[in-house]
Amino acid sequence: MLSRRQLLKTGVAGAALLGLARLAYGPITPDSLYAVPAKARFKVLDAESRTALAAIARVMLKGALPRDEAEYETALYQAVLGCDTAIAGLPMGVQAEVKELLALLNSRVTRRWVVGVGASWETASDEDIAHFLNRWRFSSFLLLRSGYQALHQIVFAAWYGNPQAWVGIGYDGPPKFMEGYWNA
Amino acid sequence: MPKDVIAEGLASGKWDVRDAATFMRDQTLEADVVIVGTGAGGGVAAEILSLAGLKVVMLEEGELRYASKHFNLKEAEAYPTLYQESAGRQTKDKGITILQGRTVGGSTTVNWTSSFRTPPTTLAFWRDHYGLDDMTVENMAGWFGKAEKRLSVIDWNVEPNVNNQVLMSGADRAGIHWSKIRRNVKACLNLGYCGMGCPANAKQSMLITTVPTALDRGATLLTHLRAERVLQEGGKAVGVEGMAMNHSGLEPVGIKVTIKAKTVLLAGGAINTPALMLRSDLSDPYGLIGKRTFLHPVNVSGALMPFKVEGWQGAPQSIYSDHFIDAFPPDGPMGYKLEVPPLHPVLTAITMSGFGEKHRQLMQHFDRLQVVLALMRDGFHENSRGGSVSLKADGTPLLDYPISDYVWRGMRHSYLTMAELQFAAGATRVMPIHEDVPGGGYSSWAEAKAAIQSLPLEVLRAKVVSAHVMGGAAMASKAEQGVVDGYGRFFNLDNLYVMDGSVFPTSIGANPQLSIYGLAARNASSLAKTLTGKDIAWPV
């Protein structure tokens, strides 16, 4: 893991970090796939990003995802699909920034040294992922904090935007009586 | 069967509404006045100028979405379709997330209906510091009165929802004064979904009031059209060049639309109007375009109540407190206004800090969650100079808004106030929305008080949001101090006007919609008189 001093020496400034990592280590070598079925429905997320986001969402949504195994897989898949929808709705410039972030998560080198997750996303433990999220969340580097906040925003918007996720939060959804309002 | 004014207007065959996303080739239109933006400023101006008999063309980057066809109360659909940048527009360092509308009606289609006249202190500050001598309370009162009449701004006498009641009772017990918020609604169903577009057309937004009148009077509305630059010729503004956007509004489709007009009126809202001016390479001898952009930066405090709050139900904002606006003079400590937001799952989940079990435990109590907001009155003190709009490489705007220590001090003060009043109202836990606050927050006012004193205040730790963007094309009596004069006339090019929230030389210190309506009505009426020689009776 890079120490704070090493990071400072590398001249951490915005996305420059990503650029540096890529310059230094060449093209990104992605992890193999997490068990998220690849379907053509994804608009922006490639297989590697889906794997990384599924692992992150699994930890961020702990307690929110259903316990039943089959339901769990479907729900996690829905969450990643929701992330894809959320990202696809962002302006192109912002989408480019999110893709930079995903590239950082996906590259073996940056995953290990900047993200701080040694194992592939497929095999990383919940503890490792939670540790990474908290490290970024409380980092003294604005860039890493903004990376955490972006993931937080994308994952939770994706999850709670789905009516299926409202079970257990005491919210029944918008008032049903409005559905036929204009045809009454 | 209720009637939707938009559906009927479209069906009548009399409206000229064109979706630029469907255009197959470049085109040119002509108008007396081209208005960029259909929000609070553009909507009012379009109505008044159309009533004067002028041929108006309205440009809107968003889509024409309306109650009977689109407004289904779902956040997941509303945010990407009705807001700038999917409701996730951010400042340069990503420290502040901004809610701003991008749809026909602009932010008025998605706002929470809170209606305040420009506070007397704010007008006095403008007179004293920006030479806007005639902006007295008396002179402006007539315009606010007209706007209130036109847009049905009423006393809201329905019982406040529990979220607002907590603010009220907590304020009472903490010795802080509060008042009721007036709202621009007719036959409001008290649903609580204003932010997703009013599904019953109760909210008197530009979408269902002024824009339809303008269309009835022969105006043209072009949607999915991003204004790219103001066209200039011989020291005059002569039109606007726009780019047709695709249906999602995310990408230009490569079709150019030119509107030639004798008068160009910018009302794309703060951030977007200054950005359009910057893209147009307008003369800016004092470097003022985009500067002094204000946000009413907001910090947030959550609380768990021992009773149901269900903050998604009922008029979102009906109670406010100006205690700490009134207590502090503009040149004193940072003043702030207290209000509450509506609580819906997506906005709540992304606002609450933390993740995993702790986040979920909070969401499990979503129905007992109460939230108070503090809106900083920025722009009045020399240590609160707001932000600055510049252009990204792709020409889209970027707001750099550094939060000064002076503003942070106001936020710490307000975290304390909000926690005190939430406990006073019976909260069992209070959690300032800040990453360093432990999951579950604090269990007593004493604990909260001690902890808040030492919270590190920096961006992306403290949650800071904004729903009010103001300034960036400030009005002043002299060109050294402002981009436009008090009537919205641009100082450095003839026939170019700005009539939206970007003309405010400071923040308003209150939710800004009515300030924009009143000022736009005054300035558009003046412009109508200039162009036609007629006095326009408004509202009709």
UniProtKB/TrEMBL annotation, chain A:
InterPro entries referenced in this protein's UniProt entry, alphabetically: TAT_signal
Highest taxon, organism lineage: Bacteria
Classification via PROSITE patterns: TAT
Protein's name according to its UniProt entry: Gluconate 2-dehydrogenase subunit 3 family protein
Organism: Chitinimonas prasina
Automatic annotation (TrEMBL), chain B:
Record InterPro entries: FAD/NAD-bd_sf (IPR036188), GMC_OxRdtase_N (IPR000172), GMC_OxRtase_C (IPR007867)
Annotated ranges, domain Glucose-methanol-choline oxidoreductase C-terminal: 384-520
Record key words, sorted: FAD, Flavoprotein, Oxidoreductase
Domain Glucose-methanol-choline oxidoreductase N-terminal: 81-298
Entry keyword Oxidoreductase: yes
Annotated Gene3D superfamilies: FAD/NAD(P)-binding domain
Keyword Flavoprotein applies: yes
Similarity-based family: Belongs to the GMC oxidoreductase family.
Name the UniProt record assigns to this protein: Oxidoreductase
